[in-house]
Amino acid sequence: MDMMTILSQLAGGMIKTIGIFILTLLLSLPLGLIVSFGRMSKNRVLSGFIKIYISIMRGTPLMLQL
Fold first, then answer.
1. 45/33 Cα distance (integer angstroms)
2. Is 49 in contact with 58 (CB distance < 8 Å)?
């Protein structure tokens, strides 16, 4: 393998990584805002469900969530 092949593979991987980052940002930011607004809601049922969701997400290891 020559250097140009290696650099082109690295560039392709970097472009895919940036694409995944942007997609994740676009999906997680609105979801996080919805969860935070639900947590601050005056509706006790909605706030209770969000509290349970947050405690489950905080209490489980990352590999289990994936």
1. 18
2. no
Q: What separation in angstroms does the CA of 20 have from each of 24, 26, 37, 58?
A: 6, 10, 26, 23
Contacts of 56 (CB under 8 A, 6+ apart): none
- Mean pLDDT rounded to a whole number for the chain: 92
Q: Which residue reads 């969000």 in tokens?
A: 50
Burial (CB count within 10 angstroms: exposed 0-12, middle 13-18, buried 19+), residue 49: middle
Q: Are 54 and 35 in contact (CB under 8 A)?
A: yes
Chain centre to alpha carbon of residue 27: 7
Q: What is the pLDDT of residues 23-58, one digit of tens each?
A: 999 999 999 999 999 999 999 999 999 999 999 888
Q: Domain coordinates of the chain in residue numbers?
A: 39-66
